[in-house]
Amino acid sequence: MELKDRIIKIRKEKRLRIKDIHDRLLETFGKEALSYRTLLRSEQGSHEERDSTLYQLCVGLGVSLKELTEGLKKTEAADAYLVKFNKRKEHVIHNENVYADVLSSNSRKFYVYELTLKAKGRTKPEKDPSGEKTPPEKLLYVTKGKINCVIDNKAFFLRRNETLTFDSSHEHYIENKATKKSRCLVVQNPGRLPPQVI
């Protein structure tokens, strides 16, 4: 049995509609609740479930994680993972001028997202935890416009088709000082959760 089948089975046994589960999640998690569409996709098995999604599914269905996942068919990580343009996995809002679209699979050792910065957009300063076996690194590749990446108060100016690689355990942020929208791909290793919403 796959996870999607288990979700449907539990929901039907408990005589719950997807709307009932969504209402329960809204009550518990407020604006952090899974969307109705995400709940639908969970039953269709059309995307990978993050730990945070599994937790909310357990709350919504009123079961433990063990009840939800025990005995499920294990799926091996695919050797290849394709994300079509109109099927991007996750949209993360940093602020009104900056957002990111996740491009990579959760099963990989790196994390990739496309960062869009509107005019005068700037990310919140961040630094990845060090002290791991693999030091945290980021690679930026500018696909549109120009950006500044400021690392420990030193600014690096990048134009379209230019890259920057750095140790991301140092405090850094990305900004667009131009009057037009800019975009860059960010590859982060080791893979971790998306940048925090601010």
Please give a structural write-up.
With 198 residues, this protein is an alpha+beta fold. The chain folds into two domains: 3-69, Orthogonal Bundle (434 Repressor (Amino-terminal Domain)); 85-189, Jelly Rolls. The protein is 24% helix and 28% strand. It contains five helices and nine strands, in the order H-H-H-H-H-E-E-E-E-E-E-E-E-E. A six-stranded antiparallel sheet has the order 1-2-3-9-4-7, with no helix packed on it. It has a three-stranded antiparallel sheet with strand order 6-5-8, with no helix packed on it. Helix 2 (18-29) packs across helix 4. The longest helix has 12 residues, at 18-29. The relative contact order is 0.15.
Strand order of the largest sheet: 1-2-3-9-4-7
Give the SSE order as H and E letters: HHHHHEEEEEEEEE
Biggest sheet, in brief?
6 strands, antiparallel
List the quaternary state of the chains: single chain
Separation of the first and last Cα atoms: 39 Å
Poorly predicted segments:
193-198
What is the name of the CATH topology of the largest domain?
A: Jelly Rolls
How many separate domains make up the residues?
Answer: 2
Average pLDDT reading: 81
Strand content: 25-35%
Taking Cα atoms only, what radius of gyration do you get, to the nearest Å?
A: 19 Å
**CATH class placement of the largest domain:** Mainly Beta
The shape, in one word, is elongated
Helical residue percent?
A: 10-25%
Please identify which CATH superfamily of the largest domain we are dealing with.
Answer: Jelly Rolls
CATH architecture level-2 label of the largest domain: Sandwich
**How many beta strands in the DSSP annotation?**
9
Which structural class fits the helix and strand makeup?
A: alpha+beta
User: So how many helices?
Assistant: 5
